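Notebook entry, structure prediction.
Reason for the run: the old model in the group folder had no record of what sequence produced it. Starting over properly, with the input documented here first.
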Amino acid sequence: MKNFLDTAKPDAHTLVALDFEPSGNSTMSLAQARDFLTRIEQELGRKAVLYSNGLIKSTLRNKVDPFFGAHRLWLAHYNPKPVVPASWKNYWLWQYTDSKKGLQPNTVPGLPGDASGNVDCNSYDGTPQQLAQQWAS
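New structure, fully documented this time:
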């Protein structure tokens, strides 16, 4: 935790998110994710966002977990209709493509992307002003 905060040096305008996805033998457990999110809130005085894909779904299954549900969900789901885990009513951000699979568009003028020019793209159901206001809160 200390290494993360010392390296990232998040200020009041920095979005802090836990990337909870499979990572081979180093995949974080649900208990480790809970600990990280708890400690971030204690240190920064605000909740981190939970970025996850199928791992949060397969780990929680259909269980409603109020602790995780109290964190904004940045859902990586590359299908036309994102399925939100039971702990949330809706996602905060939806990553709909990972530059290789998912919906279009997956290019952004001015960004180089991968060899095909594709980039990870996300959707937010609100205005740019609302997103800016919510970004690090």
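Summary: The chain is about 30% helix and 15% strand.
The old model has been moved to the deprecated folder.
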